[in-house]
Amino acid sequence: MDKTLNNKAWFLVLPVLVLVAFSAVIPLMTVVNYSVNDTFGNNEFFWAGLEWFEEMVTSDRLHGALGRQVIFSAIILAIEVPLGIYIALNMPKSGFWASFCLVLMALPLLIPFNVVGTIWQIFGRVDIGLLGHTLAAFGIDYNYTNDPMDAWITVIVMDVWHWTSLVSLLCYAGLQSIPQAYYQAAKIDQATRWAVFRYIELPKMQGVLLIAVLLRFMDSFMIYTEPFVVTGGGPGNSTTFLSIDLVKMAVGQFDLGPAAAFSIMYFLVILLVSWVFYTVMTNLDKAEGK
Amino acid sequence: MAQITLKNLAHSYKPNATADADFALKEMDHVWQDGGAYALLGSSGCGKSTLLNIISGLLRPSHGRVLFGDRDVTDAATAERNIAQVFQFPVVYDTMTVRDNLAFPLRNRGMEPDYIKARVNQIAAMIGMEEILNRKARGLTADAKQKISLGRGMVREDVNAILFDEPLTVIDPHMKFELRTQLKTLHREFGHTMIYVTHDQTEALTFADKVVVMYDGRVVQMGTPQELFERPGHSFVGYFIGSPGMNFFDATVAGHTATVLGETLALGASYAPPKGRVQIGIRPEFCVLGRSGGLPFSIRRVEDVGRHRIIRGTVAGANVNVTLPEGMEIDADANRVLFAPEKINVYADDWRVSPEGEEN
């Protein structure tokens, strides 16, 4: 079919452009504006060029937060992905218990972030918290407000508790789509349990796993609310991740210029890493098709 | 390799089955000779796949025993039975190469690498996949994937039996013929017991030495294609095998004659008076048209199918088919249908009655 050229058709995308401009582009540009200017309020701006970017790139504070952030994301991915797969493999496939497990698994995902934070904040307290008090009763020295290691453990366990379900549910959906004949053929071929996982289940879960890893990476890299509620970034700045540091800088110290430069780099890093993830995994897929 | 015996075997998917209707497989005793090529033929839902899964051990029968040779394997796991099975839809390990797919069952059994290599090459040559041995199975066509499944089914030399569960459903018609011929060659070469499930009679009759016909959870007849054609043991076999199927008429039978609709017909043999609902059955191939004798017949239409012509007509309102060889004149005024007496079979309550003097 021949398509007629009609430039008036461009007007049809105008509503979307306007919406996206108001919701994303203009706010982002405001940040860009702050990042290249210095301001002392009253909407007075003094051109600063790339000064803030230079300052941020060489800042030890940012390096520290970035390092902690990378370690945090790596740890929770390393725990949540295998654990999620393991749980999905062991969930009942049908019947009452399958529904029961699905509901149980979905519960943590339905709890608002700050509530999750509050739950764990109280849960871990040594004076009144069930976990903290119990541990203390066993003579274990646990105090997330004093000890950086305890704070890290608390934040990580909390994230695992909150988000492993997501990985599990995605994997479960992937597993459910495998026809029974594959398992039967594997039995006939005398495949081991490991071979069934490696050559049947894992390949069939690849698509959903890609999504799960991407989602968990992006989310954990931007994590703010839960550690902020539980530890406030402390003790010291041991659990100050990128977004916590950013908020401190922007609305705590009102260093708007550096904070804006920071957030733009932050945004670009997430974009870059997600893109790399995606490209690597889809290319892997293509290479296997050959 | 071993003879496979099914002893008082029955299966129900319900936990406390008592009524006949609860059973997907009705009680049966059956022996699959070592090295036989069997086709298991029947319409959908007659229990073919259930029976196959019981033999391969994917399903434990609710009643009776399964024996390989003298060994009772009813409770043995699939892996222990050393059986190969090919499924209706291609099952390949997507992330493996074609070569690894074919080698997989051998590697799982810890065979020598040299042997595996030689054997895989041999099978690849047979299914015509030498060129693409190093390709990933993902992205191949359904045809090719099913060929891999077939190859994987045949790669082990020491299997007790190879079971095929309608393996050619997804294959192109011309490939079907080729693969079937290859299976047959293979059977001759290696002498594996092969059981081939299908609902396609052409497939069954061309593949197998012995065809086992199942109906409603029962084996109704086992025989050579010729036996099934000439002496169907059950009216279902008569209907199901042949195109079109057998013609049946309610009749009373005494000695050498049958009486249908008040007309007396000669039979090829003598019968003791059968009990129950008595019918005679005659293949369309053994009917001719004429102007006198036989039964009154009115032609409805003639179908030319190339090799022969099928005349569709009615006898007293009931549909009756007659097959005539290509080139034979059809008398437009013919109003009677005549049967070859020695080709008439007698049925009582759907089961064939042996004439007096016939070895059963």
From TrEMBL, chain A:
<keyword id="KW-0813">Transport</keyword>
<keyword id="KW-0812">Transmembrane</keyword>
<dbReference type="Pfam" id="PF00528">
    <property type="entry name" value="BPD_transp_1"/>
</dbReference>
<feature type="domain" description="ABC transmembrane type-1">
    <location>
        <begin position="66"/>
        <end position="277"/>
    </location>
</feature>
<dbReference type="InterPro" id="IPR035906">
    <property type="entry name" value="MetI-like_sf"/>
</dbReference>
<protein>
    <submittedName>
        <fullName>ABC transporter permease</fullName>
    </submittedName>
</protein>
<feature type="transmembrane region" description="Helical">
    <location>
        <begin position="259"/>
        <end position="280"/>
    </location>
</feature>
<feature type="transmembrane region" description="Helical">
    <location>
        <begin position="12"/>
        <end position="36"/>
    </location>
</feature>
<feature type="transmembrane region" description="Helical">
    <location>
        <begin position="70"/>
        <end position="89"/>
    </location>
</feature>
<feature type="transmembrane region" description="Helical">
    <location>
        <begin position="151"/>
        <end position="175"/>
    </location>
</feature>
<keyword id="KW-0472">Membrane</keyword>
<dbReference type="InterPro" id="IPR052730">
    <property type="entry name" value="Sugar_ABC_transporter"/>
</dbReference>
<feature type="transmembrane region" description="Helical">
    <location>
        <begin position="96"/>
        <end position="123"/>
    </location>
</feature>
<dbReference type="GO" id="GO:0005886">
    <property type="term" value="C:plasma membrane"/>
</dbReference>
<feature type="transmembrane region" description="Helical">
    <location>
        <begin position="207"/>
        <end position="225"/>
    </location>
</feature>
<dbReference type="InterPro" id="IPR000515">
    <property type="entry name" value="MetI-like"/>
</dbReference>
<dbReference type="GO" id="GO:0055085">
    <property type="term" value="P:transmembrane transport"/>
</dbReference>
<keyword id="KW-1133">Transmembrane helix</keyword>
<comment type="similarity">
    <text>Belongs to the binding-protein-dependent transport system permease family.</text>
</comment>
From TrEMBL, chain B:
<dbReference type="GO" id="GO:0055052">
    <property type="term" value="C:ATP-binding cassette (ABC) transporter complex, substrate-binding subunit-containing"/>
</dbReference>
<protein>
    <submittedName>
        <fullName>ABC transporter ATP-binding protein</fullName>
    </submittedName>
</protein>
<dbReference type="GO" id="GO:0015408">
    <property type="term" value="F:ABC-type ferric iron transporter activity"/>
</dbReference>
<keyword id="KW-0813">Transport</keyword>
<keyword id="KW-0547">Nucleotide-binding</keyword>
<keyword id="KW-0472">Membrane</keyword>
<dbReference type="Pfam" id="PF17912">
    <property type="entry name" value="OB_MalK"/>
</dbReference>
<dbReference type="GO" id="GO:0016887">
    <property type="term" value="F:ATP hydrolysis activity"/>
</dbReference>
<dbReference type="InterPro" id="IPR015853">
    <property type="entry name" value="ABC_transpr_FbpC"/>
</dbReference>
<dbReference type="InterPro" id="IPR027417">
    <property type="entry name" value="P-loop_NTPase"/>
</dbReference>
<dbReference type="InterPro" id="IPR003439">
    <property type="entry name" value="ABC_transporter-like_ATP-bd"/>
</dbReference>
<feature type="domain" description="ABC transporter">
    <location>
        <begin position="4"/>
        <end position="241"/>
    </location>
</feature>
<keyword id="KW-1003">Cell membrane</keyword>
<dbReference type="InterPro" id="IPR040582">
    <property type="entry name" value="OB_MalK-like"/>
</dbReference>
<keyword id="KW-0067">ATP-binding</keyword>
<comment type="similarity">
    <text>Belongs to the ABC transporter superfamily.</text>
</comment>
<dbReference type="InterPro" id="IPR047641">
    <property type="entry name" value="ABC_transpr_MalK/UgpC-like"/>
</dbReference>
<dbReference type="Pfam" id="PF00005">
    <property type="entry name" value="ABC_tran"/>
</dbReference>
<dbReference type="InterPro" id="IPR003593">
    <property type="entry name" value="AAA+_ATPase"/>
</dbReference>
<dbReference type="InterPro" id="IPR008995">
    <property type="entry name" value="Mo/tungstate-bd_C_term_dom"/>
</dbReference>
<dbReference type="GO" id="GO:0005524">
    <property type="term" value="F:ATP binding"/>
</dbReference>
